[in-house]
């Protein structure tokens, strides 16, 4: 079977010239393995099936706001036009800095959205992405959040009642553990093994008094210190990791592609470089097989 036959089977014979706006790839953990799907106007493409294949993504030189669809020269806050970026709660600064959540002050840009997305239980977790990191996520976003970050293992360590609380705990722990992923390192693979359970116990020991104080502050019905959670291990569909990570973007290139070596986090790893799909949210593209 030729490559094109392969691909047209995968794409369900979709017209490969049809354009669509990129969005973060949908992810799922199946038997410990990360599964990726790209949403197009013609349905989902199973990206795992494309690994080992040669294909190109063409930028149609049009970007649309993910919220209102308006044609825009560049995106703000990860896929929005400027007006939407200052109007939507999900594009507010407090999403990046959860400890600054201002819902309680009555100043949430969209209180209904805040109620559904921020005033709900969250986890503080430890993960091995490019090394040890601490992070937060809605309880419903596990393991999605971990796959999006390219973590090879993760474990929830504290359950809290709101996004704000998770941010306060994260900020505390981030004085000892990184809260960012070094994406270049993450994309080189070869993660050092980290004993997440020992590291968790060390942090609980080190921050014992502070954790108690926060538990008293927020109320013990809001906070659960998790001492018996299981580690989730995640394998990525990668044939080989690049020695040198060179980043490709549609802000500089009209066409990106080559032989797909693998997928990790929200990155496609081609033999000629990597592209962060999520950071191109709203970019209109079409595929060439
Ligand atoms: Zn907009």
Report on the architecture of this protein.
The structure is a single chain. By secondary structure, the chain is of the alpha+beta class. It has helices at residues 3-10, 82-87, 93-96, 111-117, 144-148, 163-173, 183-187, 196-206, 208-218; strands at residues 20-21, 26-30, 33-40, 43-46, 54-64, 71-72, 122-128, 132-138, 153-160, 224-225, 232-233, 255-264, 267-270, 273-276, 283-288. 34% of the residues are buried. Zinc ion (ZN) binds next to helix 2.
Question: What is the compact description of this entry?
Answer:
The chain is of the alpha+beta class and 289 residues long. The chain folds into two domains: 3-63 and 241-288, no CATH class; 92-233, no CATH class. Helices cover 24% and strands 28% of the residues.
Name some characteristics of this structure:
9 helices, alpha+beta, 5-stranded antiparallel beta sheet, 28% strand, 289 residues, 15 strands
